[in-house]
Amino acid sequence: MRRLFGSVRSRATLGATLVVAVALIAAGAAVTLSLRSNLSGQASTQAERAARSVAADLAGGQAYDQLSLDDDDRPVQVVDETGTLVAASEELERISGTGVDAVRPGAPTAGVGDDDDDDEADDESLEPGEIGEATTFSDGSATIDGDSEDYRFAAVTVEVPDKGTLTVYAGEPLAAEQSAVRTASTVMLIGFPLLLAVVAAVTWRVTRRALRPVEGIRSEMAAITASEDLTRRVPVPDTHDEVAGLARTTNETLAALELSVERQRRFVADASHELRSPIASLRTQLEVGAAHPELLDVAGAVEDTVRLQRLAADLLLLARLDAGERPADTRLDLGAVVREEAAGRAGVTVDAPTVEVTGSRGQLARVLANLLDNAQRHARERVTVTLRTDGAWAVVEVADDGPGVPADQRERIFERFVRLDDARTRDDGGAGLGLAIARDVAVRHGGTLTAREAPGGGALFELRLPGAP
Known about the structure:
Elements: H1 2-5, H2 8-59, E1 76-79, E2 85-88, E3 92-96, H3 116-122, E4 136-144, E5 147-160, E6 164-173, H4 175-227, H5 242-291, H6 298-322, E7 330-333, H7 334-342, E8 348-351, E9 356-359, H8 361-378, E10 383-390, E11 393-400, H9 426-429, H10 434-444, E12 448-453, E13 459-466
Parallel strand pairs: 8-10
Antiparallel strand pairs: 1-2, 1-6, 3-4, 4-5, 5-6, 7-9, 10-11, 11-13, 12-13
Helix pairs in contact: 2-4, 5-6, 6-10, 7-8, 8-10
């Protein structure tokens, strides 16, 4: 049961059914009240018409025994000022609701005058032969010729010469009203459940059809999780709704995840390969030194250790960047950082005015150091570093007079462990992480790092960073 009502399909069906049920109940109540009110108004009109007809006969001087009180089987009573029933329908056997329980003309009836509506009618001052304009209504019952029914009674007063003020009570049966209300209630009691069943069935079917692609996405995701095959993709329904958007976004996420996992695997493999060389070299030198101390190459061992230390530092920084480490929001002078990194480097010319940016001073210094190391590695004679502003951007350009970078390789050089100069030695060229680190740091700072050809030949690397506000 908990699983059943825990599904979106079940909750949607239940919610739709409840909403329709509330609407139907409200509509049914409104229809019933309106029907009852209209039929009750019609009964009141008919009762008033009958009462005024008798009152008109009395006002015209007609005697009590000449009144037409048995037409249409309506209960009629005529009561004088003392509460005495002076005329009534001949077939009337019992009556209630008028305040006068007598059914045959005769002595005063107990309880007459207790009805508030009668008091209101009696308070009206009339001229001889005049019929009162006020009509009071009440509900009651009567038995005529053995048939008992509920009635709507109307009371009208009339001033008759020599007879005083008389009150005429006439009733209209409520059978039509009650029958109509019963019929409407029966129709609602039968029709509403059927309609709710149809609504529930349609909603259940429609939601099933709408959620079928979602189930396909879920099952495919479960299969991908079980198989760990990130090359698989979820089916995209041939629609233009939110489910299709969800499927497309899921596939985009899977593609990004596949790329990230593949990149991580390649990174681990390349890092293992790069670490193997200095570690093996260092171990060989130490083993030779242990066996033949006079042959120990201390300088070479130190160089391999430094290279291993730099590689470990690069790998650690890349790991932090991949983990989403955000740079510090510190205001700093980029020109000072450029001058510091270029100081002491042979053949490097610097033009770096004061330009403020925000970020991590250590990471930005690492970017500039990597760009200068790369430029010096490939330059023939000189390296030029310039710092300028371009609107809201701070732009650092590092140019060398070396062979440059082929146009089709200017993006590839920013990939990790990529070295275009296959002829150079690992000791001279490093592990191929410097430019990858530089671009990642630039992106983390909201900037860019691109490569193009320098105006005088060679390679030019352009670092663009947003200026400090």
